[in-house]
Each structure stands twice: as C-alpha cells, then as structure tokens.
Design a protein that fits this description.
By secondary structure, this protein is mostly helical. It has helices at residues 5-18, 36-52. The relative contact order is 0.17.
Length: 73
C-alpha cells in the first residue's frame, strides 16, 4: 500500500526471475483512459519491467465489467 506501482512491478519481476518462475501476473486495475497521470503510470510500469525482462510484457489482458458502460468504447 502506498508504494510506487512501477517499483512493485520491478521487484516482482526480479523476484520471479530469481525464483525461475514461468508466469507473473501484474494487475494494474483501476486505470481509466481519461486519467492521463494513470495512463502515464502504465507506460512507466512497462518501461521498468523491460529493465528486468527485455521483451516484457509478453501478453496484455483487458478485462471489462458490465458497469464500465460507454467507457468501454
């Protein structure tokens, strides 16, 4: 709680590499397209992840719920 999301992603990937993990899931929930600072934060998370694993992220999943409404477009 209260940590920089990019540093959490960095620490997670470092730990996963050290433990020879096959899969790491990083949840970046709560990001809306109309919140520029949160979108910039996602860019930073990706950049930091690539310092540990050069071609990260391998997959990106977008999960939408029914309450999203027209924001889904």
């Amino acid at each position: 709680m209260g940590s920089d999301p990019a540093s959490v992603a960095f620490d997670t990937l470092q730990s996963a590499v050290a433990q020879d993990a096959d899969i790491v899931i990083i949840d970046t929930a709560g990001r809306l397209h109309n919140k520029v600072n949160l979108m910039n934060e996602l860019t930073k998370v990706k950049r930091v992840m690539q310092k540990v694993v050069a071609d990260a992220p391998h997959d990106i999943l977008l999960v939408l719920d029914g309450s999203t409404g027209q924001n889904a477009f």
